[in-house]
């Protein structure tokens, strides 16, 4: 399985959330640029430019894909684009409202504004 499969979130019970504190790294490292939504390896990784859009398409098609959600948030954060950060967190938290660590991280981004 993926890293973090054995961890259960104490709040939302999602297996990879891990009930992480806001200062901890995301528990699962997964890259949809090299893995398809079903888990098979992809032969060619897309460019960084379209990575956010590709991840957003995946989560729109499959909102239960927690790993792509967390990867999407990471992409938005690495791009340091507040609009994308807001969009990613807003949509993620609609699906996983009890993942409190992500609420805290989102609030930290807003505070830094």
Short summary:
The chain is mainly α.
Question: Your description of this structure?
Answer:
- Helix 1 packs antiparallel against helix 2 (66-79) and helix 3 packs antiparallel against helix 4.
- This protein has 113 residues and is mainly alpha-helical.
- The model is unreliable at 1-11, 15-29 and 36-47 (pLDDT under 50).
- 46% of the residues lie in helices and 0% in strands.
- The N and C termini lie far apart (37 Å).
- The protein has four helices and no strands.
Total DSSP E strands: 0
- Series of secondary-structure elements, N-terminal to C-terminal: HHHH
Sheet-strand content, in percent, reads: under 5%
* Helix and strand composition category: mainly alpha
Mean pLDDT: 73
**Uncertain regions: pLDDT < 50 for 5+ in a row?**
1-11, 15-29, 36-47
Helix content: 40-55%
Q: What kind of sheet is the major sheet?
A: none
């Amino acid at each position: 399985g993926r890293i973090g499969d054995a961890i259960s979130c104490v709040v939302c019970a999602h297996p990879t959330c891990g009930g992480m504190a806001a200062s901890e790294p995301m528990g699962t490292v997964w890259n949809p640029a090299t893995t398809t939504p079903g888990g098979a390896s992809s032969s060619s990784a897309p460019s960084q430019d379209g990575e956010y859009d590709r991840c957003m398409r995946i989560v729109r098609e499959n909102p239960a894909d927690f790993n792509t959600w967390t990867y999407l948030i990471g992409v938005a954060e690495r791009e340091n684009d507040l609009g994308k950060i807001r969009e990613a967190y807003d949509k993620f938290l609609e699906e996983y409202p009890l993942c409190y660590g992500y609420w805290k991280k989102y609030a930290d981004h807003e505070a830094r504004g």
